[in-house]
Request: fold
Amino acid sequence: MRFTTLDDWLRWQETLHPQVIELGLERVRTVLRRLQPKAPPFTVITVGGTNGKGSCVAFLEAILRAAGYRVGAYTSPHLLRYNERIRIDGVEVDDAALCQTFARIDAVRGDTSLTYFEFGTLAALEQFRSAGVDVAVLEVGLGGRLDAVNVVDADVALVVSIALDHTDWLGPDRASIGYEKAGIYRPGRPAICADPDPPPRLLEHACAIGARLLRVGADYDFVRTGATWRWQSGKTQFEALPQPALAGEHQLGNAAAALMALTSLADRLPVEVAALRAGLAQAWLPGRFQVIPGPVEWILDVAHNPAAAAVLAQHLRARPCAGRTQAILGLLADKDADGVIQVLASVVDEWRPVTLTGARGRGSADLAARLRSAGIQAVFPHDDVASAGQAARHEAEVGDRIVVLGSFHVVAPVLAAQPWIPASSLPHSRET
Reply:
């Protein structure tokens, strides 16, 4: 074994391939064939889209587990631990198992260079095979057509939404991005589109390959009915469903898309209505409009593009606070900072832009300049997330709220530090 600790394996993987991101299936397909010469023995649900992927995976995982299936889930990126990316029956795969799997991949790859994400995708597929899962729910990392997750054929593929993001890799407009995301569809298999206004190129591609396209508003639909909601597709109807456990009105659309995916697999993976209800009520996804109540409310949201920021702004308006709203904002350099600022400007009183380091990082000075160019005066830049969190906590008064947004790289350190816990309530440590 090349390394004995997970951290060492991950540091090495970050340097193995000359590019951090290089889309394409040739490398990962070559190694997968050596690892698993046969098709996966489990059902595969692949979830792509600009926003909403993680929520749909959470609903699918919770419902299928409630139905009694052994479920593997692969998501990215992680918040606090790499292990979050690969779960089997809701349990993160431990360090030892990951190290053993990485060693097996390393042994068979030969001179094939793999990216960090490709290594992780292969590890997830290996873990699911060895664990004997019934179904694997796979979240696309970037795009779809050339993303490593697309190396396996989905039994049902779901595209949640199409918006402008990752334009350097996926193209400059929704048409190009929609085509890339439609690449996870397969001939003759259910191809769900939960975007109510999909670009024609997505529809054309699905038609050209003979996928069984299922569109929201045409092939399935949902409606709120007071405190519950109803879902319908053809003759199949579910009444009085509980509100999704994940916060936000948009989660009805994500939950409805998950139900369409499951209904399309009913012959293979039947799910009782009781399991649907249980899963909807139990789904959990940290960092997506995650509300930490208290005298000062904290709201954590990894929204990192204008479409996601607009949803966050809608939530904030629907949840007014008595005091001020501070925002701790960090965005990577390839994100549309101006678009994010524009949609949130009216719901934030004070801004604390932070610096994100690394190859794709963006400095707080750049964000501060963009905020001021947008006519915002209450701007207090910080060199890092920790200092921004401390300052926001110090300045906040009862009735205020602090919104942390823009990236997993912003939300993760705040989650780890938990600055909403008053210092007086923290347990004292004692050396022995």
Observations:
- Residues 423-432 have pLDDT under 50 and may be disordered.
